[in-house]
Write a structure and sequence with these properties.
The complex is a heterodimer of chains A (42) and B (348). Chain A is mainly beta. Helices cover 0% and strands 33% of the residues of chain A. Helices cover 23% and strands 22% of the residues of chain B. In chain B, the strands form five sheets. In chain B, strands 9, 10, 11, 13 and 14 form a five-stranded antiparallel β-sheet that branches. A three-stranded antiparallel β-sheet of chain B has the order 8-15-12. Chain B has a two-stranded antiparallel sheet with strand order 2-7. In chain B, a hairpin with a 2-residue loop joins strand 10 and strand 11. The chains are: A mainly beta (42), B alpha+beta (348). The interface between A and B is large, with 35 and 73 residues.
């Protein structure tokens, strides 16, 4: 079985503000084993 | 049974079958090892349709799936249960220490397969800014969706669109080419336009849903594909706090979903039976697509227990539009907390 997650999230830079404080970043790599509850990204 | 003693002889045909199965298994292990080595060396697996994939389309996969489910749900004698489940765990690398109940309490393989875990086995990352994995599994692909088509790569050389995966979604941000702008470094970014009609496909079913985020924010659309091996824990949890607004059920095919299938079957994720949950979280759109396979063909949805998947009558209806349900109350739907159990994959 497979689960596909699709979601909207802030990206690194906005047009109005150069701050990258709200950007979303994945903290995984392809091929990683992951468990429920572990972070995919922040 | 020989007349000279009590020694047992295996009939020739049985022996030949065992040898053949052993050879096939060894070949498969060898293939998997080669793929793993290629992945470690950074070599991309390419799409290569083959005859076996074409042959799969001719097989009654739903009937096979349902028969497997029937076999797996047969109650086993108590004494044999630990042996069967330990063998399963050894074959598919499951951790039996985490099972919530003693092994002899699972009446059937189907029940064992969808077992819950002991409390604390899966601690939830409490960082409010993090999005957690909804399942145990292997990360196949992830990234940001860009461009008007919003395509997800199945493997190198073949992609499918998000809209074909999720169906006609009233909430999916529509990324039109004219909406994509570039920042000072040439990176594509998508500004929010509260009043721009192209941003949302307004639905008659949920006309009140609007993007509540401040207009100054810039968002992207991201995806993550996670594959669950047979030995993995097969329950789906909520990745964030969110409101599920719509459920869609696509009664498609039930192709296997392993790496070989992804490499050889076109539109694998779009053709297979699946449930899509859509809604909103604090940053905007959120959707989970749970895709069934031949052996794990049915999906149980805890927020809608009356929903049945992998039904015989839907065998020929995979070309029909999905069955959709809008959760009440409208525009609020079903609220789920991060880590809540949402669904489970069942055998057959």
């Amino acid at each position: 079985s497979t689960v596909i997650l699709i979601f909207q999230a802030p990206i690194s830079k906005s047009l109005e503000d150069d701050s990258a404080s709200s950007e979303f970043r994945f903290c995984i790599k392809r091929g990683d084993r992951i468990h429920v509850g572990e972070a995919l990204g922040r | 049974n020989s007349s000279k003693g009590d020694s047992f002889l295996v009939p020739g045909a049985t022996l030949a079958t065992i040898v053949m199965l052993g050879a096939l298994h060894a070949r498969r292990l060898y293939g998997d090892k080669k793929l793993e080595e290629a992945r470690e060396n950074g070599i991309e697996i390419e799409f290569q349709p083959d005859v076996k994939a074409t042959f799969l389309r001719l097989l009654p996969l739903r009937s096979i799936s349902r028969f497997w489910g029937f076999l797996a749900s047969m109650e086993l004698p108590i004494w044999i249960r630990p042996y069967v489940y330990r063998s399963w765990a050894r074959a598919f690398h499951s951790n039996l220490e985490e099972a919530a109940k003693p092994l002899d309490k699972y009446a059937s393989l189907r029940e064992f397969f969808v077992r819950t875990l002991k409390d604390g086995s899966r601690p939830i990352d409490s960082d409010p800014c993090c999005l957690i994995s909804p399942v145990d599994g292997t990360i196949l692909r992830f990234g940001e969706l860009k461009g008007a088509g919003s395509m997800i790569e199945q493997v190198k050389g073949f992609s499918y669109s998000v809209s074909s995966l999720l169906g006609a979604s009233p909430f999916l941000p529509v990324i039109a080419e004219e909406d994509i702008q570039q920042d000072s470094e040439g990176q594509e970014i998508i500004p929010r336009h509260e009043n721009k009609k192209s941003w949302w496909r307004i639905s008659l079913a949920s006309p009140k849903v609007r993007d509540p985020a401040p207009a100054s924010l810039t968002t992207g659309l991201f995806y993550c594909v996670i594959y669950l091996k047979p030995g993995d824990y097969h329950r789906i949890h909520s990745p964030v706090d969110w409101n599920v607004l719509v459920r869609r059920h696509f009664s498609g095919r039930l192709f296997p979903l392993n790496e070989r299938a992804a490499r050889t079957i076109r539109n694998l994720y779009v053709e297979n039976e699946r449930i899509v949950l859509e809604g909103r979280w604090q940053e905007g759109f959120m959707a989970i697509a749970a895709i069934g396979a031949t052996t794990i063909g049915s999906i149980e949805l805890f927020i809608e227990p009356e929903l049945w998947t992998n039904q015989t009558r839907k065998n020929l209806l995979h070309s029909e539009p999905p069955e959709e349900r809008v959760y009440e109350p409208e525009a609020v739907g079903v609220m789920l907390k991060k880590g809540d159990e949402v669904a489970a994959f069942n055998m057959g």
